[in-house]
Write a structure and sequence with these properties.
single chain, 133 residues, elongated
Length: 133
């Protein structure tokens, strides 16, 4: 089953009052509030606070959805932080040449890891065959 990994660009889920609370953002993005707080601690998102409450703006929604998409692609948090640091808040993450370059590097890393795992599977299978025979 193929998934669509387009990064968030539209205004879907636009905060009606100008902001969302964490529960509303979690529901909108299909994630858990603990995950959102984790990304805050990792400094991938930094919503303003109003007293005890975090309030998420449309830009925070867009940024979180981009983070979630990159994580689904297996991009490490440190690399996501690098991608986000290189871009202006309004810059389209997916269309950026900087992002394309980092995603190409990530794809190379995944392909190398796949080759290593394939070799490990073959060696393990061979070892198992010799032990069972």
């Amino acid at each position: 089953m193929e998934q669509n990994f387009e990064l968030y660009q539209e205004t879907d889920g636009e905060p009606q009052n100008g902001f969302l609370f964490i529960g509303e953002l979690a529901k909108l993005t299909g994630t858990d509030p603990k995950t959102i707080r984790f990304y805050e601690r990792a400094e991938l998102i930094s919503p303003p606070r109003h007293g005890r409450f975090r309030t998420y703006l449309a830009s925070d929604v867009r940024r979180l959805k981009n983070v979630l998409t990159l994580r689904r692609l297996g991009v490490p948090i440190a690399q996501i932080r690098d991608i986000l640091a290189m871009l202006s808040p309004d810059e389209d993450v997916l269309a950026s040449e900087k992002t394309v370059g980092l995603l190409r590097q990530h794809l190379d890393t995944l392909r190398n890891r796949q080759a290593e795992i394939t070799q490990q599977i073959e060696k393990t299978s061979s070892a198992l065959d010799s032990l069972v025979a």
